[in-house]
């Protein structure tokens, strides 16, 4: 008798799950299905699981395909299960290719091709899975698709790129069902889109999507002007669709906690925020005018720190920019933002490397977040007397894109049009500062 085992969350059970179980069962005579616990999913960075363990076990039982159901509770359990249950074959979807090769020491490992798209409506829960399309086929879009596998209840179904060939290449590599070059065609096949195309194209894509009732998660900066950002939010409110700027840091647990701690009063009134983000770039669209440069490319992160920690009621913006060649883009900038009772300094660089840390200074003490502060895993609250210092540790899973997608999917599912993690007013303030900074810098170099 050949014994097969497979693992999964099996949340909002859909066609992809059913087909996986069918093929796993066909590999042998006896199928054991391990369903993950909430704790295990949390530990491995899986977000937005909608159903309880009991409901997910029931999903698997209802499929009629499992001969035995067990639960997966901890890292490293698979090896024990394989030995204890005398398993011959470990089967899992192709989104995990390579990841479980180490189990070959204990049994045969089989990767089964995952189901592209889960749009079947016959299934009880298929309506619960959010269908998302990706606009753009660059690096960030690819990372987003990989991260989306850690967000339950979301299925990335399609990609749209100006070049059909690159869309097709992207879809084949990332196992997506549909590749198109026509944006309107994309809008017809999904409920929501993630825009990761060049900055200058965001506004038009977002507007067209909102107009036909498609929810939009848009890479930062959402637009390059305040007016366009305001217009998009107004339109989204009117059409009752979710529009969210994809500033991953804003949605990560560590950053949110840091903001809460800073605003709770332990360090006293916040008087100054200094935030830096630099990333060296040798070639590409970041170095091309008019939309390139360190501000449009990276300043959103330090500006997020300013608006989340001090607020949106700034009174003045002054910018110093390094521009070695007159026709080129600026390579390093410091945006100084004045508030009635505080100041912020946002540094960004694509041609200068600096320490990427964050300091929030208050009247009683300060918060120090070491680089890379935008992937907040650790921060310290420091005081004059170092015995009072306090350290905080958090988890930041993957490259963080899963957090923005999790928030976006949560908002759509629950009909929430604004997130307190990144309010519309905050996105508008960031667009406003960015526009002012780019319009009127004092150049050096
Ligand atoms: N699956 C699939 N096609 C889809 C979606 C999922 O074939 N469109 C497969 C997955 O590859 C996996 C199984 O269905 O083999 C269960 O998927 P999930 O519930 O998303 O669980 P997952 O996060 O893949 O857990 O220890 C847990 C395991 O590592 C896998």
Descriptive overview:
There is one protein chain. By secondary structure, the chain is of the alpha/beta class. It has three domains: 3-112, Rossmann fold (3-Layer(aba) Sandwich); 120-248, Rossmann fold (3-Layer(aba) Sandwich), CATH 3.40.50.720; 250-444, Dihydrodipicolinate Reductase, domain 2 (2-Layer Sandwich). Helices cover 32% and strands 25% of the residues. The chain contains 14 helices and 20 strands. The protein has helices at residues 15-26, 38-43, 53-63, 77-84, 139-148, 164-173, 183-189, 202-211, 226-239, 253-263, 294-298, 300-309, 401-414, 424-439; strands spanning 3-8, 30-36, 68-72, 89-93, 108-112, 130-135, 154-160, 178-180, 192-195, 215-219, 243-246, 270-278, 316-322, 332-338, 343-349, 358-362, 365-369, 378-383, 390-393, 442-444. The strands form three sheets. A nine-stranded mixed sheet has the order 19-18-17-16-12-15-14-13-20. α5 links the parallel β6 (130-135) and β7. α8 runs parallel beside α9 (226-239) and α12 (300-309) packs across α14 (424-439). The radius of gyration is 24 Å and the shape is globular. The N and C termini lie far apart (75 Å). Bound molecules: [cytidine-5'-phosphate] glycerylphosphoric acid ester (C2G). Residues 7-11, 16-17, 20, 36, 46, 72, 92-93, 95, 114-115, 118 line the site of [cytidine-5'-phosphate] glycerylphosphoric acid ester. [cytidine-5'-phosphate] glycerylphosphoric acid ester is lined by residues 7-11, 16-17, 20, 36, 46, 72, 92-93, 95, 114-115, 118.
């Amino acid at each position: 008798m050949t014994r097969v085992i497979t693992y999964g969350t099996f949340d909002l059970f859909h066609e992809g799950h059913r087909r996986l179980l069918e093929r796993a069962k066909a590999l042998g005579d006896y199928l054991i299905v391990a369903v993950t616990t909430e704790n295990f999913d949390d530990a491995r960075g899986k977000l937005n699981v909608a159903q309880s363990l009991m409901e997910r076990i029931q999903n698997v039982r209802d499929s009629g395909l499992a001969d035995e159901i067990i639960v997966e509770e901890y890292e490293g359990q698979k090896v024990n299960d394989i030995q204890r249950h005398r398993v011959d074959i470990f089967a899992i979807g192709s989104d995990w290719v390579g990841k479980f090769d180490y189990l070959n020491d204990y049994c045969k490992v089989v990767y089964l091709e995952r189901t592209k798209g889960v749009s079947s409506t016959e299934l009880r829960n298929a309506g619960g899975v959010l269908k998302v399309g990706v606009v753009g086929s660059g690096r960030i879009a690819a990372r987003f698709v990989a991260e989306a596998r850690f967000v339950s209840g979301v299925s990335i179904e399609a990609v749209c790129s100006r070049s059909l060939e690159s869309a097709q290449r992207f879809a084949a590599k990332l196992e997506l069902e549909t590749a198109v070059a026509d944006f309107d065609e994309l809008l017809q096949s999904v409920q929501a889109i993630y825009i990761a195309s060049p900055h200058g194209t965001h506004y038009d894509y977002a507007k067209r999507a909102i107009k036909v009732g498609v929810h939009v998660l848009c890479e930062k900066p959402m637009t390059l002007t305040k007016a366009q950002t305001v217009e998009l939010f107004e339109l989204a409110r009117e059409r009752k669709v979710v529009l969210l700027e994809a500033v991953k840091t804003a949605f990560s647990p560590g950053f949110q906690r840091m903001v809460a701690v800073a605003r709770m009063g332990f360090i006293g009134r916040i008087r100054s925020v200094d935030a830096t983000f630099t990333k060296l770039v040798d070639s590409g669209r970041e170095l091309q005018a008019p939309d390139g440069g360190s501000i449009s490319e990276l300043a959103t992160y330090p500006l997020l720190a300013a608006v989340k920690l001090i607020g949106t009621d700034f009174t003045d913006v002054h910018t110093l920019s390094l521009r070695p060649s007159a026709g080129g883009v600026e390579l390093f900038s410091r945006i100084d933002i004045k508030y009635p009772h505080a100041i912020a300094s946002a540094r960004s660089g694509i041609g200068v490397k600096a320490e990427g840390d964050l300091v929030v200074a208050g009247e009683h003490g300060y918060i120090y977040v070491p680089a890379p502060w935008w992937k907040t895993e650790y921060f310290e609250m420091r005081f004059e007397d170092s015995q009072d210092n306090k350290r905080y540790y958090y988890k930041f899973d993957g490259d963080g894109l899963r957090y923005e997608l999790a928030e976006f999917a949560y908002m759509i599912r629950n009909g929430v049009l604004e997130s307190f993690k990144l309010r519309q007013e905050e996105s508008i303030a960031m667009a406003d500062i960015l526009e002012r900074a780019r319009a009127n810098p004092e150049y050096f170099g």
